[in-house]
Amino acid sequence: MSEEREKVEEVRTAFLNEFDRFRDLDLSTATLASADEVSRELAELKVRHTGKKSAIAGTMKLIGRVAPEERSAFGQLVQSVEKDIVSMIEAAEAKLSEFISDARIERERLDVTLPGRRPRTGHLHLITILRQRIEDIFVSMGYHIEDDREIETDYYNFDALNIPDGHPARESQDTFYTTDGFALRSQTSTVQIRAMERRGVPIRIIAPGKVFRRDTPDMTHVPMFHQIEGLCVDKDITMAHLKGTVTEWLQRLFGSDTVTRFRPSYFPFTEPSAEFDFSCFKCRGTGQFEGERCRPCKGSGWIELGGSGMVHPNVLRAVGVDPGVYSGFAFGFGLERMCAMMYSLDDIRLMFDNDVRFLEQFR
Length: 363
Fold this sequence. Notes:
two-stranded antiparallel sheet, 19% strand, seven-stranded mixed sheet
């Protein structure tokens, strides 16, 4: 039996040699990551020395080589060694488990007495801010806000607006055609046509929305931008009403001393037509600001804003309105250009770059 006992003692010695580094674990400087690594190594040790294929399990096969009268004592020896191995491993596991549990609790601990962090809230885009300011002014003047589809037929995008075949605006290099006879709207004037068909006359509306043109993106052009168009149709409407309306909303937006002027122009959907300017909101029309050339108006004292005019009789006929009884005016302007002037932006593409550092300046 002495040879079998020696084999059992060899198993015990081999285990003790491997277990020596786990015997007195010093976790005073350990981290959670290092403790997790030690725990994995200890688990591997446990499998090697207590599993079904472990050395201690193999010693049980030696019992057949022991004399019958010594088998009981030999079996007790093997069980004792196995019990000692399991006991030492479990003690080390318990110590590691306690340290890992405490470390995780400490890592996840919250100090409920600390002041909370305010969530970072967003805000409206600067184009939306300006659009809503303008909408509020026109609603207070009795106008309704209208919007409609962004993909339009040739009829609403061109024909009903008195834009004839062969006009440059109808060419594919200027308009985004989707399929034959359909295109992304190139102006919000399409909303005016649909609104008159639906509401009839008299009518007073503004139509803010996105429009699309084949422009190469640069500092002053983008292929998708925003317009606001206004329309008023009633009996006995004249250019005087157009001038009074435009002047009133610009004075409410920029101040009561704002001056407007109208210059003759041409648009297919209005006759007569005019482009309108207003006195610079920064230099108040002087062309100079703080002793230097004013940037928004480039020293002229005037800012060109948009186009306008009396609604063309053909446009009224297209929606079933008798131009002999009713007349009206329309005007339109771009929001991006207006935003760029108001906030002294050199490049309108900044408004579409989604750079939070830029956008958070405007509240």
